[in-house]
Design goal:
heterodimer, A: 79 residues, mainly beta, 5-stranded mixed sheet, globular, B: 585 residues, alpha+beta, 6-stranded mixed sheet, 41% helix
């Protein structure tokens, strides 16, 4: 199945050819989780990250669905 | 002994007095709120002679404590009618603290004349300042540096403050000597303008000379906090690299970035105005452009920036998340250069970027200019600059603009424009907007940290459960942080790394020779809120004022298609329950 992924801030290093906010369609196996996706993207396990799936912050083990919109960030703050 | 500097604008006299009684041991917001609560009639007109403007550095300001250079300005607000404290990071705080001044209290009114308060190592005096009338803050700062030297601190108002516009803020200078570090919210600039005070010049080179009793213990604790701030991924990495506007994409993904006057939760041009885009622009244009800029000497977070123009010259310092959002996404404007120009104009006129952008968006909804019309927005700011009738309507703030143009989607609480997080998608911050003693204010209890950023635990932003308690605890903690003079962003690290808070307490104890515990710091926050609630109750505010505008309860926000649904009965308990332990009803 395919999901729509955007990498932000420091995570852009894992897809440096994309412009800011540009999405990439990633093929993952049926039943894949956020953790599987992160592996496909080549982001190491020990790099802290936050997954926002369809506008909701989800755990790495969250199961993915066809067409999910996924944003991946490092820990961020501001205001 | 620390002093209070009394400045009487009616008799045009200044006097130092020893800090004593209930004011002893207070600083920052705790002191501004205590003085306003004790000395200002809550029913006074905010722009009349009986209101007082109080300026106070924090308890740890002017020391080696990292990221502690905050200056608090308080008064009764002409925008909200409530008590107000608005703080900024600037060396002005460190200079005041180093001069041993705990607070400057400006009282009375001089009629139509304009004055400048000069504070030096030797004393203070009021000087005529009519030559600076209606001058923009950039030219003013430049002229004052020519006259008084390059090491001065400048606290000033622009033409909007002199015209007593409720959206007027108070500028503090940055390390390059430019205006732009604003105590923006709640019309503190209008109060300063109403006193006939154009500027306060701090002519001293001192920055880190606030008295400390136990210097060795203080130094150790300061180093401990520095390490904590540098080791946390938010304060140590992403804030310096991308600035506060890193949140544009985060809130956009979370569906909570208010767009075109709070009608949508995502902006199609979010990426183009994001912190990442600012960092790319700084990289590309070079010159004076900079990320990782500190708003005051001794900040180790350095979340600020200098946004360069095409020639590498400073276009605006800084462009922060809130301004980027209010003048950008909220107005449907997706061009960074235009946003930076608008931001610079706000700084020059002396107006709060949040209130300005929120008011502009309501005007856009009314069709004054279309959403997305950057040049039209610039023309509207020029109307404010010139004080035309339309400019004065905009300068009166969001609520007035809504009334004048018959708009019902008017995002305000207690008359103050709602900042950059839609409360339907980030419900914890909605509780803070509704219940803060200041009107809609995100910094009063930054639930976004826990709702969205996963700092200090996690409370689901889309559910009403747990938000009231989250906001209450954060509002207590923030009142204490604002009183210490610490940047609120230190909380990102303090919430996650317990020894950070230990270091703060150790510094307070070392500075004042005390033996405070964590419980005392909580109590300080509760006392501050108790003073502020007391003032607001006497001003006529009731529990019924602690709610959001109707449209947040009725109109669903895309993409989550949600309304705000934290029940009123939970909202009305947030602040009363916070203060109950120190001030039982």
């Amino acid at each position: 199945m395919q999901v729509e992924v955007r990498l932000y801030a420091g995570m852009r290093a894992y897809a440096p050819h994309l412009s800011i906010g540009q999405s990439q369609i990633i093929e993952v196996p049926e039943g894949a989780s956020g953790k599987d996706l992160v592996q496909v993207l080549g982001i190491p396990d020990d790099v802290p990250k936050i997954l926002v799936i369809n506008g909701r912050k989800e755990d790495l083990l969250h199961p993915l669905k066809e067409g999910d919109r996924i944003g991946i960030f490092p820990p961020v703050g501001g205001g | 002994m620390s002093k209070i500097l009394r400045v009487n604008m009616s008799s045009l006299t200044v006097a130092f007095e020893d800090i004593a009684g209930a004011y002893l041991g207070l600083g920052g917001r705790a002191l501004t709120s205590k003085i306003v609560c004790s000395e200002v009639d809550p029913t006074c007109h905010p722009l009349g002679p009986t209101n007082k403007l109080v300026i106070a550095p924090g308890l740890l300001t002017g020391t080696s404590c990292p990221s502690s250079g905050r200056i608090s300005i308080g008064a009764k607000s002409p925008l909200t009618g409530t008590i107000k404290e608005s703080n900024a990071g600037s060396m002005t705080s460190q200079k005041l603290a180093s001069l041993g001044i705990s607070a400057v209290v400006v009282e009375g009114q001089p009629g139509s004349r304009l004055f400048l308060l000069l504070i030096t190592d030797e004393g203070a005096e009021l000087l005529p300042a009519d030559e600076y009338a209606l001058m923009g803050t950039y030219e003013l700062n430049s002229k004052l540096r020519e006259k008084y030297g390059s090491k001065i601190g400048v606290i000033c108002v622009g033409p909007a403050g002199e015209r007593k516009m409720p959206i007027a803020g108070v500028s503090n200078n940055d390390m390059e000597g430019q205006p732009g570090r604003y105590c923006g919210r709640g019309g503190m600039g209008a109060v300063m303008g109403s006193k006939g005070l154009k500027a306060i010049v701090l002519q001293t080179s001192k920055l880190f000379e606030a008295p400390v009793q136990n210097k060795e213990a203080f130094r150790e604790a300061a180093q401990k906090l520095t390490k904590v701030l540098q080791s946390h991924p938010v304060t140590g990495q992403t804030l310096p690299a991308y600035g506060t506007a890193v949140l544009i994409n985060v809130l956009n993904e979370a569906g909570g970035l208010p767009t075109r006057n709070f009608s949508e939760g995502r902006f199609e041009k979010a990426a183009e105005i994001s912190g990442e885009a600012i960092a790319e622009m700084v990289q590309k244009r070079g010159g004076k452009g900079k990320m990782g800029h500190a708003c005051h000497p001794g900040c180790v977070i350095r979340c600020s920036n200098i946004y360069p123009d095409e020639n590498g010259e400073t276009l605006c310092s800084p462009v922060e998340y809130e301004s980027d959002w209010s003048l950008g996404a909220n107005c449907g404007i997706g061009d960074l250069d235009t946003i930076a120009r608008l931001n610079r104009l706000c700084n020059d006129i002396g107006i709060d970027t949040i209130e300005t952008g929120v008011a502009l968006a309501v005007a856009m909804e009314a069709g004054v200019v279309p959403f997305g019309d950057g040049e039209g927005a610039i023309k509207l700011l020029e109307e404010i600059q010139q004080g035309t009738p339309l400019g004065r309507i905009l300068g009166a703030g969001t609520e007035t603009v809504g009334k004048v143009f018959g708009i019902t989607r008017v995002p305000v609480v207690k008359g103050q424009g709602i900042p950059a997080y839609d409360p339907r998608a980030v419900k914890g911050i909605g509780v803070t907007y509704a219940t803060s003693t200041m009107g809609a204010d995100h910094t009063a209890g930054y639930s976004v940290a826990t709702n969205i950023l996963k700092v200090g635990g996690y409370v689901d932003p889309l559910k009403p459960e747990g938000q009231a308690e989250l906001s209450r605890n954060l509002q207590i903690a923030t009142a204490a942080i604002d009183s210490a003079g610490l940047c609120v962003f230190t909380a990102f690290a303090l919430l996650d790394i317990p020894k950070g808070m230990d270091a703060v307490i150790e510094m307070l104890n070392a500075k004042f020779g005390l033996s405070l515990t964590g419980a005392d710091v909580t109590k300080l926050g509760q006392e501050v809120l108790a003073d502020e609630l007391d003032f607001n109750r006497r001003a006529g505010f009731t529990a019924a004022h602690d709610r959001l505008p109707e449209f947040f309860y009725k109109e669903v926000l895309p993409p989550h298609q949600m309304v705000f649904d934290v029940p009123d009965e939970e909202l009305v308990t947030v602040i009363p329950a916070a203060v109950a332990p120190v001030r039982p009803a």
